[in-house]
């Protein structure tokens, strides 16, 4: 009985080793090409919270299929060169940097003469003042900005039920994915051309 147990134990070890080598071999055939990180706050408004949760799942899924890693953080203090040096693409899923040091990378914001901005219907969705960046860049890393950020929520009947999703339209999904691959240095020429056309159509 002891011999049998030992044999079974050895077989188990061998199987685990072979499985481990198989996984390692697969990992080597599909190495991560670049790294993506998103910053988000995800609080207060259910429409934005819903979007952020959906975005996390979608980005993890497309990342696995397109050989890029995806991380996320709610700590905006990570908006610094040391942390960002590990990533090639940075995404803001909602809100924006508030600290002055974190805004050093930003180049332009909405001119005060342009206020008020927004369509509502809630009063807090109309901007009357504030610092809202529209263009930014940095020599150490790249960033992407798309004018999307919340799903439709049933506020009228107070159910907070999701009435729409963001990542379920092929054209829009391709726009976002192509943008990430382009920023990560993986875009082909035809992909860049498609991205420019998509940006024009979406008026982003």
Write the layout of secondary structure elements.
Layout: H1 2-29, E1 34-39, H2 46-66, E2 68-73, H3 81-84, E3 89-92, E4 106-109, E5 133-136, E6 142-144, H4 170-183, H5 189-202
Parallel strand pairs: 1-2, 1-3, 3-6
Antiparallel strand pairs: 4-5
Helix pairs in contact: 4-5
Polypeptide structure, described:
The chain has 204 residues and is of the alpha/beta class. The chain has a domain at 32-168. It has 5 helices and 6 strands. The chain has helices at 2-29, 46-66, 81-84, 170-183, 189-202, and strands spanning 34-39, 68-73, 89-92, 106-109, 133-136, 142-144. The strands form 2 sheets. It has a 4-stranded parallel β-sheet with strand order 2-1-3-6, with helices on one face. Strand 1 (34-39), helix 2 and strand 2 form a beta-alpha-beta unit. Helix 4 packs across helix 5. The radius of gyration is 22 Å and the shape is globular.
Condensed summary:
With 204 residues, the protein is α/β, with parallel strands linked by helices.
Major sheet: size, sense and barrel closure? 4 strands, parallel
What is the first-to-last residue Cα distance?
71 Å
| Number of strand segments | 6
Write down the secondary-structure element order: HEHEHEEEEHH
Unreliable runs, pLDDT <50, ≥5 residues?
Answer: 1-28
The gross shape turns out to be globular
- In order across it, which strands form the biggest sheet? 2-1-3-6
Averaged pLDDT, please? 74
Instruction: Give the helix/strand class.
Output: alpha/beta
The helix tally amounts to 5
Question: Percent of residues in beta strands?
Answer: 5-15%
Gyration radius from CA atoms, angstroms: 22 Å
Query: Which range best describes the helical content: under 10%, 10-25%, 25-40%, 40-55%, 55-70% or over 70%?
Result: 25-40%
């Amino acid at each position: 009985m002891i011999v049998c147990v030992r044999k079974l134990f050895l077989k188990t070890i061998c199987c685990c080793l072979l499985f481990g080598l198989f996984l390692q071999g697969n990992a080597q055939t599909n190495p991560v090409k670049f790294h993506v990180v998103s910053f988000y706050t995800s609080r207060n408004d259910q429409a934005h919270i819903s979007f952020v949760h959906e975005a996390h799942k979608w980005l993890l899924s497309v990342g696995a299929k397109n050989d890029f890693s995806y991380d996320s953080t709610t700590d905006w203090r990570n908006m610094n060169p040391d942390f960002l040096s590990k990533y090639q693409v940075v995404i803001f899923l909602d809100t924006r940097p508030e600290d002055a040091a974190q805004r050093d990378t930003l180049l332009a914001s909405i001119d005060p003469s342009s206020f008020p901005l927004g369509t509502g219907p809630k009063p807090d969705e109309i901007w009357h003042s504030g610092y809202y960046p529209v263009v930014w860049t940095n020599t150490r890393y790249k960033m992407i900005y798309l004018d999307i950020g919340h799903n439709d929520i049933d506020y009228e009947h107070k159910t907070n039920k999701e009435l729409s999703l963001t990542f379920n339209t092929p054209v829009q999904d391709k726009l976002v994915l192509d943008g990430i691959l382009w920023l990560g240095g993986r875009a082909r020429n035809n992909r860049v051309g498609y991205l420019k056309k998509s940006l024009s159509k979406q008026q982003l």
